Amino acid sequence: MPARRADAELREFRRLAPRGRPVANSFHYHYARLIEILYALERIVETMDDPAITDKRTRAHAEVNNMVGVGVSEAPRGTLFHEYHVNGDGILQKVNMIIATGQNNLAMNRTVKQIAQYHINGGKVTEGVLNRIEHGIRLYDPCLSCSTHAVGQMPMVVEVYDAGGALVEQVTRG
After folding, report:
1. pLDDT of residue 136
2. Do 72 and 28 share a domain, yes or no?
3. 40 is in which domain, residue-wise?
4. Residue 147: per-residue pLDDT
5. Does residue 59 belong to any structural domain of this protein?
6. 3-state secondary structure of 59
């Protein structure tokens, strides 16, 4: 990684995995994101120190050069795919986006199920279980839960059913 501090953190991060293997524990996602943020901050400083960013010869006049454009960008919650269609004047005619929340849905559901199976005993849902469920969701989609809510304040309803399908407990937060 071409950033001194971020590269040092990346080396430390890689030590969390068995030799020669990638770090695969989803609970390390936040650590990986922090390394990416550190890298971005180092690059920002480097860019701000570059005199070329204030060069008067950087202006460009854009015209429509393609009627369809496709982009891919990384975000804390995953990859965003977007496709744009324009008319001859550059006015949007159609936009198609594949949002990471939808891509992460299966993984979030499986994580919540694993948390529930491990931490809910006798059908009792505690505040600690609610916090673990919230954390499990944040691993895959930190934007979903924290864009409008503070930690520990994420609204949710947890229902526990017995093997026969009868509701044993319902806990509501928020």
Report:
1. 86
2. no
3. 4-54
4. 53
5. no
6. coil
Nearest to 83 by CA among 146, 72, 74, 2: 72
pLDDT averaged per 10 residues, the chain (length 174): 90 87 82 91 92 79 90 81 94 91 85 91 86 84 58 77 90 84
What's the pLDDT score for residue 166?
A: 92
Is residue 83 classed as helix, strand or coil in its secondary structure?
strand
Do 86 and 39 sit in the same domain of this protein? no
In terms of C-beta density within 10 A (0-12 exposed, 13-18 middle, 19 or more buried), how is residue 156 classed?
middle
pTM for this predicted structure: 0.55
Would residue 165 be called left, alpha or beta, if left means φ above 0 and alpha means ψ between -120 and 50 degrees?
A: left
From residue 115, give the alpha-carbon distance in Å to each of 1, 35, 46, 163.
Answer: 34, 26, 42, 18
Count of domains forming the chain: 3
In a domain, 63, yes or no: no
